[in-house]
Structure to design on (118 residues):
């Protein structure tokens, strides 16, 4: 069973960078054909896929967010990290990490609320 847990700051000021970490257990983040994703859901809106890092380290980003988003990993800690730059109040959302494998999401974190406010 794949388990994921997000961690990071709950409150960020506009124009700052938010960094969120997802700790994975139950499998290695280098296990073949896993894709480790970040997905967010603003209040009252639908989910938005932000990007992912693959088992081999390749990354892929949502085009609207690509210029502000970076996903990296720490294999020794079995973690992957999202950095979102130049945040605005529109980036306020619950941020989820998830593991995608064999055409389905094998596990989700519980989500962490990030509020962008001065």
């Amino acid at each position: 069973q794949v388990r994921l847990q997000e961690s990071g700051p709950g409150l960020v000021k506009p124009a700052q960078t938010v960094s969120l970490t997802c700790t994975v257990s139950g499998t290695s983040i280098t296990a073949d054909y896993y894709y480790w994703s970040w997905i967010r859901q603003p209040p009252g809106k639908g989910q938005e896929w932000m990007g992912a890092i693959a088992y081999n380290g390749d990354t892929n980003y949502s085009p609207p967010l690509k210029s502000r988003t970076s996903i990296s990993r720490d294999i020794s800690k079995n973690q992957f990290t999202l950095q979102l730059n130049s945040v605005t109040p529109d980036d306020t959302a619950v941020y989820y990490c998830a593991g995608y494998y064999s055409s389905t999401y094998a596990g989700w974190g519980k989500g962490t609320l990030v509020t962008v406010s001065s």
Notes: The CA atoms of residues 60 and 95 lie 17 Å apart. The chain has a mean pLDDT of 97. The chain is about 0% helix and 55% strand. The first strand starts at residue 3 and ends at 7.
